[in-house]
Amino acid sequence: MNLPHESVTMSLCEEVFMSEYQLVYGLHAVEAVLERYPERIVELFVLEGRVDERIRKINQMANRMSLAVHVRNRAQLDKMCPEPHQGVVARMRMAEAGGEHELYDHIQSLTVPPLLLVLDGVTDPHNLGACLRSADAAGVHAVIAPKDRAAGLSAVVRKVSVGAAEWVPFFQVTNLARSLDFLREQGVVCVGLSREERAKSFYSMSLDGPLALVLGSEGQGLRRLTKERCHELAFLPMSGQVESLNVSVAAGIALYEAVRQRRSV
Fold this sequence. Notes:
CATH 3.30.1330.30; Alpha/beta knot; 2 domains; 7-stranded parallel beta sheet; 4-stranded mixed beta sheet; 10 helices
């Protein structure tokens, strides 16, 4: 495929045009949006001189969709992206995360007992991306987070999630406590991870029914109103000297214990 070679310096007009859209970068993330949301992609940028199987596959996908593909040198791609881009960047129109009404419709449409991940104020986009990746691997039906003081679906999140952000339903709600009340009304058992004195060992919990695992922020943990909506509080047993786990690591461990129990039923 012959790609147009662009000028070395982007024009001011082009930079303004770029700022009106969100960039998605990284091989896995770009492949995922090409597969899931091709209608939202406006154009692709690839690294000058990079010719390998992964880039060839992306070029072929873009060619089938009649998408414009532009060559950029490394300095130009580095200027576009705050993190390593692996030589490929997509500019796309981004859909907003679902809200409360979309969440309620989604939960009521499920035909199997839901497995949900609730993140109460996770602000680090790297942690959110890692949580989405674990959620996708575990078959989670939805990831739920508050709109305020929490990370959303940024380009960093999409890159870290390695494409999972395009597949796992993600909802940002105005009132997390109200959404947890709704889940309870739907028969979903809410289990919050906390190291409070009244918390039980996570491995003593029954996790094979409709379930929402609720994890708090990196520093503050679960907020009071969130804890009050949980049916149970549980902790992950730890044998070392470190008192807590990274939220994305804790989410992965907890999700896979739930998956283990659900598959043994």
